[in-house]
Amino acid sequence: MRPDDAPARLAPLLGPRDLHAPLAWRQGRPISGLAWLADVEAVARQLPAEGPAVNLCGDRYRFSVGLAAALVRGHASLLPPDAREDTLARVCAEHPAAFALVDPGETHGASLALRVAVDADGSRPPLNAMPDWAAIDSARHAASLLTSGSTGTPQPHAKTWGTLVGDVAAAAPRLCQLLGLPSLAGLTLVATVPVQHSYGLESSALLAMLGGAAFEAGRPFYPADIVQALEAVPRPRALVTTPFHLKTLLQSGLPIPPVDLLLSATAPLSPQLAAQAERATGGVMAEIYGSTETGQVALRCPVRSEVWAVLGDIRVQAEPAPDGGERFVFSGDFIPAPTPMADLLELLGDGRFRLLGRANDLVHVAGRRTSLGHLDFHLNSIPGVEDGAFWLPDDVADGVVRTVAFVVAPQLDAAAVIAGLRERIEPVFVPRRVVHVQALPRVGTGKLTRRELREFALAQLAADGSPVRLSHRVPADHPAFAGHFPGRPLLPGALLLAELLEAMRGVPALRARLGEAPTLAAAKFLAPVRPGADLVFDLQPESGAAGGVRFEVRSGDTVAASGRWLPGEGARGAAAGGAP
């Protein structure tokens, strides 16, 4: 932040551009920069004196108007990961004065005290020139991107207006170079990613507002919608997307209009998919690397090279990590502070590097090392695999890692998937099991979060009668230890069963099988459970929809308890009658 007595450094809402030229396209109709400014001015007058604004607009044009109007009014915009009411209730608890910006007719945002419909479609009389109020203090808090942490509570990543301006200024020249154009003027961006996500924000709304391009107002998701959106805007045009959306589009068989530039982010893009995209569209395929904390920091063209190159004056260097290992830190003028990435890199000098995988998804087998991201990359490169992901269970048996591969591959059996993987990865990493599913639980950006994949995997394995393994740590200060027993504390059997039941309720398929109040048919307590014990719950669903679940509770190599639960009242498909 600048000192209070320092002069403000101002940056305009719109970067250098012809204000009469299109800034946006809505349903095939162009909207000029001057018309956009008129909408911003009108909406800003409607906003309350206190904020911040929670921008929930799905329409990309209305989102951009709401973002700018909030800035003009002096409010930051909070950008949540989704519009679920439980998410918004948590945001509201942190910001009691927050109000929602919504598309007209939308009902979400009821958790907030005030909802403002962004009534803007470019139909107001345009302004005559750039107004004085469109110059924003670079140090002003412009937006906070909220990402869900491990607790599920949205964590804010604050961005000043100067940070956002610098982010786009670093990327725009590289994109011009790829297009062979002196500027981005005339380029229209069609984006499949939500604008509340950092990549969607930077590479659609902000790249148009600050970089000189234009954007299409919608958010096409299905292949036919993407094709229609591309056809509705002039060339040169760019498709801002993800590997998941891109693969779905290419597999649809629909004729794709020519695209001059394709941008991808959020997950590794295979060179095979990149080459297929270039052949199908005639455009240049580019991949963006970055994070919510840093913004976009590097780019590569995967058809031509696996090497990334930093954008602008961004720097990357290795430094010792707190755990004794090595971490890779990015810094630059628009990055507020040097920021480490949660990735393993191979630095090549001059701002170039190779991405080796996520630091927190490494898999070690038989002295060999790889990452889940690397395995996913090769799984999705197999012809016939429409989508796929490796999952690593919470615990390993006998010290051996046994990964499971979940695939959407209607035309391939498990043996064919295994054969494809054997051609691409070392034998020790080939999964013991391939599970075919209808779809993976990807979020709007195409990402597959670790938490969502874990819940999905447990549900799938439980639903087909496969064993489920859960982990649980007994708190060292559990209140039961005070009375059981001084000097040699142990966890009472009833509380151990309660902990087990609570863990089972976290697996949807087991919860559906057993109901809300399952019946304990049998239980044996074979060894004491001490404070701080790391337990493993081995659960085996019995055959048949009305079957129960047998369990073993292990502490290290010792079986502490075993038994059986039967379906209770409310269980789906449960049979009447008591325990046998």
TrEMBL record:
Membrane topology note: Peripheral membrane protein
Pathway note: Lipid metabolism; fatty acid beta-oxidation
Domain ApeI dehydratase-like residue range list: 467-564
Residue stretches making up the AMP-dependent synthetase/ligase domain: 77-300
Keywords: Ligase
Any one Gene Ontology cellular component term annotated for this protein: membrane
UniProt signal peptide: none
Gene3D superfamilies assigned to the protein according to its UniProt record, in alphabetical order: 3.30.300.30, Hotdog Thioesterase, N-terminal domain of ligase-like
Molecular function GO labels: long-chain fatty acid-CoA ligase activity
EC numbers for this chain: 6.2.1.3
Matches recorded under SUPFAM superfamilies: Acetyl-CoA synthetase-like (SSF56801), Thioesterase/thiol ester dehydrase-isomerase (SSF54637)
Descriptive protein name: Long-chain-fatty-acid--CoA ligase
